[in-house]
Structures are given as C-alpha cells and as structure tokens.
Amino acid sequence: MSFRHRHLLGIEDLAPQDITAILDLADQYVDLNRRQIKHADTLAGLTQINMFFEASTRTQASFEIAGKRLGADVMNMAMQHTSLKKGETLIDTALTLNAMHPDLLVVRHPMSGAVNLLAEKVNCAVLNAGDGRHEHPTQALLDALTIRRAKGRLHRLTVAICGDIAHSRVARSNILLLGKMESRLRLIGPPTLIPAGAAEWGVEVYDDMGQGLADADVVMMLRLQKERMDGGFIPSEREYYHRFGLDAEALGHAKPDAIVMHPGPMNRGVEIDGTIADDINRSVIQDQVEMGVAVRMAAMDLLARNLKARPEGVYA
After folding, report:
1. Whether the predicted model's global pTM rises above the 0.90 cut
2. 190 and 234 in contact (C-beta within 8 Å)?
C-alpha cells in the first residue's frame, strides 16, 4: 500500500491514489474496531502527542482512541491552557517537542497555516487535526469513507454541502477531496456565508435549498461557526433555519436514497431538524463518528510505516 507522504497536512497535497490507500486501510480498521478485542501493535514503541491549541472533544478523543488501539504511547497536551498563555512562540514549542522525540504529532490550531509551520520545525510525522479556516483533512477522509461505504463509490456522485461554507475548514477539505474523486459539488447557503470566488472552484453555488438539493446523492450539513463570525452574517437563527435548515420538506428535493451527514457538533433546530438527524434510514452521522477512528488509525499507520523506513527511524 503506497503512501509516500511525510505528514498529513491537508487534502490539497494528496493524489486520488493516496486518498484511496487511506480509505482502503481504514476499511480494515473498521473491521478491527468492531471486534471484541480492538487492539493491534502497529504503533508499539512509538509516541503520539496530541496538541490541541483549540478545544475539541470528538476529534481529540478519536485520535486518542486510534493511537491507543494501535499500541502507541499517547499523551494529550491541552495547549490553550499551558505555555502559549505564558508567551511561548510556536517555534519554541516545536523545539521543546523535538527534545521529547515524539514520533507522531497531532495538532489542532485556531490559525490557518500554523500546523504547516510546526511540521517544518519538528522531526516527526505531523497530522493536521484542523487549522483555522484552512483544512481538516481527516474529517474529509472520514466523510469520504462514510460516503463510499453507504453508496459503494465516491466517483460521479452529486454532493450538496450546505450552510456556513465561509468559515468551514471541513467544507474546504471536502471540496478538495470530492473534487479529486470527480464528484459533482454544490454549495448552498446565504451569500454572506459563501466565500467570494466560490463559483470559480469548479462547484455550483445556490442560495435556495430546493434548487441546490435537487436529485442530490449526499446532503452534508455544516455547523454555524459563530465563534469565527465577527459580524451579522445571518438575520437570526430562526430565519436561518427557515431558509437553510434541513427538514423533511427540504430533504424531499434530494434523491429518495440520499444520505444525510453532519461533522458535529450539531445545532438541532438551527442547521438540521432533530428527526432527520436521528433517522436511521437517512442519517449517517453516527457512522461518521465511527469512521473517524478507523481513518485516523489508517493515517497514523501509513505515516508510521514511512517513519520506520527511514534511516535510524528518524526524519532528517
């Protein structure tokens, strides 16, 4: 299984065969995770540090479970409460980490590009767990695995991504990934939440849910990221839900077998109706959570193989 990357910093640098390699291996880890004994020794003897400069629950837990199931020594560092509050720079943090000799570094940061900067300064494999509005590659990969398992393919599907596109690194990574896999992409949302120039990305842009969801195979809802908004992007949550929330009427425009996705955490009654989110015949939201552990196991496995293949097991 060929995957020649030193880090996993984004989808932009991955070729379709790289994406397929991760998903194929993740499929095997889905099977492992459903067994009574969910343990392998793939990362035995390696140290994984999870550095979250931005608070997270599901992503950090998923990476921690993934590392432990593969046998790594896992340490969590809640960076928003530690050295940065005391004035330490990102470069100084990288130098400190190098002295600890970790093998895998999982990083979430509120600033776009910060994870790439760290990757240039550390002597280990780095996985981007989300940086600013830039990318969230493992979320896009777990979404892709969820879609592929539900639909049997990733190619030539019509995927509607709905909501706060402007502030979403999840949307960016999914647009890149699904575009590489030749799916048809539609972005749906109010003009204030659609990035300028989005129509030039090879996607279709709509401000009407009925038109945008027509005959869609996949409906991917996004959270309103109010923490990233510095102005009045929507009149009110009630008005937003009326026009851009996913309810039975809106979903009726999609194909009868369309699946519903959401990266979480969900705001029920704002982005999505609770009955739709819980509909086991349409919603794959819980499947996404399950696929997240498997995808992160696969990504760390492949990066660790490259680490072990280098002279003396270290990066130059």
Report:
1. yes
2. yes
- In Å, how far are 145, 176, 269, 299, 305 from 24, measured between CA atoms? 9, 19, 36, 11, 16
Partners of 70 in the beta sheet? none
List per-residue pLDDT tens for the chain, 316 residues long: 679 999 999 999 999 999 999 999 999 999 999 999 999 999 999 999 999 988 888 999 999 999 999 999 999 987 765 555 566 788 888 888 889 999 999 999 999 999 999 999 999 999 999 999 999 999 999 999 999 999 999 999 999 999 999 999 999 999 999 999 999 999 999 999 999 888 888 999 999 999 999 999 999 999 987 555 455 567 788 899 999 999 999 999 999 999 999 998 899 999 999 999 999 999 999 999 999 999 999 999 999 999 877 655 444 4
| Pick from 44, 71, 20, 30: nearest CA to 292 | 30
Beta bridge partners of 218: 159, 259
What count of other Cβ atoms lies within 10 Å of the Cβ of residue 309?
9
